[in-house]
Each structure stands twice: as C-alpha cells, then as structure tokens.
Amino acid sequence: MKIGCHVSIRNGYLGAAQAARTVGAGAFQYFPKNPRSLTVKSFDIRDASACRQYCAEHGLVSVAHAPYPTNLALDDGELYQKTVASVQNDLDIADACGSLGVVVHFGKYKGAADDPLYGYRQMIRMLNDILVDWNGEALLLLENNAGQGVRMGTTLEELIQIRSLTQKAEKIGFCLDTCHLFASGVWNGENWADVAARARELEYFPHLKVIHLNDSAYPSASCRDRHAAVGCGHIGKNGLWELLATPECSGLPLILETPAPPSGSHREEIRYVLAHIT
Hints:
By secondary structure, this protein is of the alpha/beta class. Helix content is 37%, strand content 15%.
C-alpha cells in the first residue's frame, strides 16, 4: 500500500510531489487550485508535466481534490454553470499531473423542492454535463458524505446508483472516507464484515480508487465530520486495520486528512500506519 497526506501546491505541482516524497509518502493529495474558489485556473502545463514525470520516476501516486464550494446537487443558475466549469478545470489539471482523478464530495441538496429525489436528479444532470466531452484518463471520484447537515450521500447504495444512472459511468470512481463512513453510522467499528459484504454485493469495490484514512473525533452515527489522527479517535486502530486488511483494499492509495501534528509534518503518522499494514 502507498500512503501519504494532503500537501500544498504553494511551490507548484512538482513542488507538491517533491514535498510528499520528503515526508516519506508514496501517495499524496492536493487542491489543483484555490480550495475556497470555483474560479477556473489557467495553469502551467510545464509544471504539471514535470509533476507527472517526477511521480512516474519515483513511484508516487497522486489524487486531486475539488475545492470546498463544489456541490454537485445545485439548482439551475449561474453557480451551476460555474461549478461545472470548475470541475472540468480540476479534471484537466489532474490529468496533466498524471493523477488518478479528482475527489468530489457527493452532492448536498438544500433547496425547497417538494420532490425528495430532486437533488439526486440535479446531481446526475451535473455529472453528465461535466463529463459529456471528457476523454482524459483522470476519473471523477465520488466521496461518501458523513451526514453532517444533510444525510444525502452517506450510503454505498446511493454512490452505486448515481454512478449507474450517468451517461459516462466509466469516468466515475469512488473515494472512501473512513471517518465519513463511521460518522454516518453505516460503519460502527464492529460491523465491517457486513459492510464489506454489502460492498461486494453492490460491486462497489471494483470502482474504489482511493481511501481517505481518517479516524473520527466523534462516535458512530454522530453525523459530525471531524477527523482524528489514526488510532486516536472513536474508530481506533483495530477498526482501521480490519478495514485495510480487506483484500479489495490492498494496493489502494491511502491519504491522511488528519490534523497536522505540532511538527507540521505527517511523517511519523505515515511511518506508524506503514509499520502496521506492511
């Protein structure tokens, strides 16, 4: 397994890859642009290509993460079109950097439509609009939600169903966030065998491309999205090791999104996880 953490692109995409390798990471995640903006970024293709080459030379796996304001379940309007253009831009950057894809949170519909399925239809529509002309290798990676604010996108069934109803399902994969799965109540730390069995039944695992390895600061079913360092939360190390021992998870890149330690580096946490899974 390759494990790493989220890194800054303050020194460019190549700089992000180099920073990841400096802390002993075999994988890393990055925001392709300002994480708080949906503005389309005109990026340096030479820097992105250098990142791709560096990762290939050193066996690094990278994945991009869409900016925080990205919401796939929006109503019609200017923000809808802005979001479509933003995610397409993220995919372009990720592809240029040689990344697996762009992690995007499952949509959250907060509108007033009487139809409870309206938000899901909007999400399918947006995914189709984003991917209609996308022919690159980078995938759009749907991430499960924790249930904070809106319960939408917490179950494996939702992820599978949304993907199956899109026009270019082959361009969509999944990112599993362990804290979100636990916080949502789908996983309670003791029922992983049942969750994994359901994932196999749904054929979820063949499309799982990356795992966000996070402990949870709050109990299962709290619907509170607060990450904790591995082994220091309510999931605990034994629960996380059981999940990682699942055959279908073998070889998937693991990304730590845990609180930065006082040193500012995840080097020790990366070593800790590697010592227990290899």
